[in-house]
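Re: beginner question about structure tokens

> Can someone show what the tokenized structure looks like for a real chain? I only ever see the sequence side.

Sure, here's an example I had lying around. Input first:
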Amino acid sequence: MSLLRNPEVRRGLLRWAAATAVLAGAAAVWEPRAGLAVLAAGAVFTALHLAGLRRRYRQMADLSRELDTMLHGAPADLGRFREGELAILRSQLAKLTARLQEQADALGRDKRFLADAMADLSHQLRTPLTSLQLVAELLRAEDLPEDRRRQLARELRGLLDRLAWQVEALLKLSRLDAGAVELAREPVDVAELIRRAAEPLAVPMELRGQTMTVRAAGGETFLGDMAWSAEALGNVLKNCVEHTPPGGEIAVAVRETPIFTELTVSDTGPGFAPEDLPRVFERFYKGRGAGGAAIGIGLALARQIAALENGTLSAANGRRGGAVFTLRFYRSVV
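And the corresponding structure tokens:
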């Protein structure tokens, strides 16, 4: 591109020519040869200045082409711009492009996660909805015996409860993922937490003949959110209840140290298969021993809540069998 097409360059050349003419005229008044020397020097310096400008504008044009290449998704090499202001500009542009690439990658991961979550959600909801349709169709029969009708009504209620819990758990997970939940940081009494978490499970445990024991010194606390902590612990207890045979036992042991408050939940069930243990907390993952009503959301939700409360949740097999969950709430950031 011609430099003279640039208005800024033209204005600069006019100012330079005017200054050279004034100086040459002043020098010619004193000595004609001095005026010619000033004109010659002005011409040389103008040529050098234009050469420098041409080189600088060529580099800027190259930089513009490199940026256009990056905007179209192709890699670009900004490392060859190594002088003065262009080096500073190059450094800032490199930071900007790196940041934009990180955001693009994060957006891509979010899109893939959303697609996978929607696929999992549709799969998880399809099974109970299909069962509901089948039960409803059976209930339409006019010659259905009363005992069978009551049995189907109980099954229908159970399916509705399962579907309601599943939808509620998914909504809680989505709220946590979106950062729409602000958890409190208040003293939580562990004894009250265990009572609240175990209360909804009293009837299922009674029907199964299961018992729950609590071993605690009393007075243990931690900073957290009572409602969400009860949700996390309740999901752990629910998992133990579902995997403990009738007449079994669920035990909760509490330990408090200067660093953390720990709740250890164990059961007398079969424990985890070795291939299932690394994936216990994955969303929608159902292990080998999972029942037909298992959904695979509760433990994932429990771990996410624990993480937001500056805590951890881990799972292992007990030395004497059964599953062991360790829930820790730390007193400082870990």
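Each token stands for a local structural state, so reading them left to right follows the chain. Strands lie at 186-189, 211-215, 221-224, 249-256, 260-267, 311-317, 323-330.
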